[in-house]
Amino acid sequence: MTAESAEHRRPWPVPPVGGCTVDDLFALPGLPPHTELIGGSLVLVSPQRNFPADVTGLPVSGLRHSVPKKFRVKREMTIVLDRRNEPEPEVSVVFADAVRGPDRTSCRAQDVVPAVEVVSPDSESRDRTTEPYECGTAGIPHFRRVERDGTDREPLVHVHELGPVTQSRVHMGMHRDRIEVDEPSTVAIDPGPVEARS
Prior knowledge:
alpha+beta, 29% strand
């Protein structure tokens, strides 16, 4: 048996009864990069596509030039929501004093102000329903969802806020030509068109 065929026969990790926890995610050897934990289940991320790769750069660049010094903009940083949920949104803005050392691989939900998720075909349901709900339950006040506008390649940005009374996620609107928000600071970003057209 060659090393290559042995690699293909390697068993997948079997989750424990009741699902995985954050501790399991850190302890399991050989997981692919960017593996997420959603509702106690391991979610393996498929290879990056052009649309998310190109679109992610827009909020990263716009936010880094706009947010006050008390915040830091992170790309693909894992957020520990609770012991069974650890998503990795494309972009998050965290409090600067929560950035503790260059070797940290995650941040806490209470340190995140907005999270920005770019929808991919294989994660569409999670990105539209599960992740906004879980981020809201964990107390992250702002959530942005970026997706393709129908069959077009232009980005459509959905703005979600945490309602102050109900503490549930509220859809506040959509942006195509220009994103203007006042929280966590006043930011205006032109979301399109994306560079890659193939």
